[in-house]
C-alpha cells in the first residue's frame, strides 16, 4: 500500500530536532481462538484433523515512522485499524513480532483512564502507586505531587479512598497523574474530552502550553479531527494495520474524513442489500414508496467555491401529483440549515427514476452536513399543503463535508456570505 506523505513549514520546523521515538518495520499479530477443546479427547481429535483451534489475525503490517523532539504527533484511523495496538507497543505493554521500536527519554503512557488505580487505597496512595507503575521513584513522585493535586483540584479529598470518589473525580486524578508526570514523551489515547467543561478548559490550556515546550513530545491517538488540527504539528493515519498517510495535519485529517465517507457508503450498500434480500423496507420507506435515497455524485472533501452535486432515486407508482422536499441538516451545530419547501420540486415521472440536483457551497463555513429527502403528495382536504409518503433517513440520507482554509469552524455562514460592519451613528 502506498503511503501519502506531505509536509508543511510547521512540521518541517521539528525535523531537525533529535528523533525521540522511531518504529522500524513493526508487525504484530494475535491468535484468535476458533473453537475450544473441552478435554484431552477433543484436543487429540482436533490435532488429527489438523484443526489448530485458532486463527492468526495480522493487526499491524510493516509500520515505520519517526517522531522528533518537541512534536505534537497525532495518530488517527478508524476503529480496528491498529492504533491502540501500536500505542501498546510504544508503551511496551506488547512487543512486536518483527521490527523494533526505539524510545529516547522517559515515556509516560496514558492508554486507559485509571489503569493501575486501586479503589481501596486513598487518592494520595494511588498517586504514588501509579507513579511507581510509570517508573518514577518515591522522591520523583514527591516532587510532582503538589502539581498533580492542584491540577486535579482534589486537595481536600486526597486522603479519602478512591472508591468514594465520583467517576468525574477519578477521571481528573488519573488524567492529572499522566499529564503532570515529569516525562519526556507523553502518550495519550482518546482522553481530550475528560471531566467537566471547566476541567476540559484547563486541559486545553495545558496542551496549548506544552506545545511551546521544545523538550516535551506528545503522541495523541484520537477520532477528533478538530483536536488534531488544533494541537498537532504532524499526523499519521493507519488503515488495516498499515500507514496510508503521514505529514501535515490538514491532509491527514481530510484523508480520514474521506475514509469515513467511503466506509459509510459501503455500509449503506450492505444494509440496502440485506433489506432487499429480506424484502423489508428501510426506516422511513414503505410499500407506497419502497425506494427513496439521496446520494453524492462524487465522494470528496469540498471547498466553499465548489458546487455539491447529488442524486435522488425514488420509486412511486401511484397516479397524480407528487413532490420531493429536501432539507439540509447541520450535523455538528444542529438544526435544519435549509429546506426546499413541501411543494417546490414537482416530479413528472412516475415509477422508478433518478433525478439530479446541485447545491452551491459559497455561503457556508467548514462543517458536516446531511441531506434528507421526503416524497410528498397533495393533502386531499387542502391542496395548498402536502402529506409525507416516505422520507429518506439513516443509510438513505446523504452526507457531505466542507473544508476550506478561508473558512472558520464556529459559525455556519462564512465571512464572504455575511459580515457585520461598524458604521457611524446614523442621522436622526
Automatic annotation (TrEMBL):
InterPro entries with a match to the protein in the record: AAA+_ATPase, ABC_transporter-like_ATP-bd, ABC_transporter-like_CS, ABC_transpr_TagH-like, Bact_Polysacc_Export_ATP-bd, P-loop_NTPase
Keywords for this protein: ATP-binding, Nucleotide-binding, Transport
One Gene Ontology cellular component: membrane
Keyword Transcription attached: no
Domain of life: Bacteria
ABC transporter domain mapped to chain residues: 40-265
Pfam families in the record: ABC_tran
Entry's Gene Ontology molecular function annotations: ABC-type transporter activity; ATP binding; ATP hydrolysis activity
The family this protein is said to belong to: Belongs to the ABC transporter superfamily.
Protein name: ATP-binding cassette domain-containing protein
Amino acid at each position: 500500500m502506498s503511503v501519502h506523505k506531505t509536509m508543511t513549514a510547521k512540521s518541517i520546523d521539528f525535523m531537525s530536532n533529535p528523533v525521540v521515538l522511531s518504529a522500524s518495520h513493526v508487525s504484530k499479530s494475535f491468535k484468535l481462538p476458533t473453537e475450544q477443546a473441552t478435554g484431552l479427547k477433543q484436543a487429540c481429535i482436533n490435532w488429527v484433523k489438523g484443526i489448530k483451534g485458532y486463527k492468526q489475525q495480522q493487526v499491524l503490517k510493516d509500520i515505520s515512522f519517526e517522531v522528533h523532539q518537541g512534536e505534537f504527533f497525532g495518530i488517527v484511523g478508524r476503529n480496528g485499524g491498529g492504533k491502540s495496538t501500536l500505542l501498546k507497543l510504544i508503551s511496551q505493554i506488547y512487543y512486536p513480532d518483527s521490527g523494533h521500536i526505539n524510545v529516547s527519554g522517559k515515556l509516560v503512557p496514558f492508554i486507559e483512564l485509571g489503569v493501575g488505580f486501586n479503589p481501596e487505597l486513598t487518592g494520595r496512595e494511588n498517586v504514588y502507586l501509579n507513579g511507581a507503575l510509570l517508573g518514577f521513584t518515591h522522591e520523583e513522585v514527591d516532587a510532582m505531587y503538589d502539581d498533580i493535586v492542584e491540577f486535579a483540584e482534589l486537595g481536600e479529598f486526597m486522603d479519602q479512598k478512591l472508591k468514594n470518589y465520583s467517576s468525574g473525580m477519578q477521571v481528573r486524578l488519573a488524567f492529572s497523574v499522566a499529564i503532570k508526570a515529569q516525562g519526556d514523551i507523553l502518550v495519550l489515547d482518546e482522553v481530550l474530552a475528560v471531566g467537566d467543561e471547566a476541567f476540559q478548559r484547563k486541559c486545553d490550556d495545558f496542551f496549548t502550553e506544552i506545545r511551546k515546550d521544545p523538550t516535551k513530545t506528545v503522541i495523541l491517538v484520537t477520532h477528533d479531527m478538530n483536536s488534531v488540527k488544533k494541537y498537532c504539528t504532524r499526523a499519521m493515519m493507519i488503515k488495516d494495520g498499515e500507514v496510508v498517510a503521514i505529514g501535515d495535519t490538514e491532509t491527514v485529517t481530510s484523508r480520514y474524513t474521506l475514509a469515513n465517507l467511503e466506509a459509510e457508503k459501503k455500509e449503506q450498500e450492505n444494509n440496502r442489500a440485506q433489506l432487499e434480500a429480506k424484502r423489508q423496507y428501510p426506516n422511513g420507506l414503505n410499500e407506497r414508496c419502497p425506494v427513496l435515497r439521496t446520494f453524492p455524485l462524487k465522494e470528496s472533501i469540498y471547498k466553499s467555491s465548489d458546487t455539491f452535486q447529488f442524486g435522488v432515486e425514488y420509486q412511486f407508482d401511484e397516479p397524480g401529483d407528487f413532490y420531493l422536499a429536501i432539507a439540509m441538516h447541520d450535523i455538528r451545530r444542529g438544526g435544519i440549515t435549509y429546506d426546499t419547501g413541501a411543494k417546490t420540486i414537482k416530479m413528472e415521472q412516475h415509477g422508478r427514476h433518478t433525478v439530479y440536483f446541485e447545491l452551491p457551497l459559497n455561503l457556508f463555513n467548514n462543517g458536516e452536513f446531511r441531506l434528507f429527502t421526503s416524497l410528498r403528495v397533495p393533502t386531499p382536504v387542502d391542496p395548498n399543503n402536502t402529506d409525507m409518503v416516505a422520507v429518506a433517513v439513516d443509510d438513505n440520507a446523504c452526507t457531505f463535508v466542507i473544508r476550506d482554509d478561508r473558512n472558520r469552524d464556529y459559525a455556519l455562514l462564512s465571512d464572504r456570505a455575511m459580515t457585520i460592519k461598524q458604521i457611524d451613528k446614523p442621522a436622526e
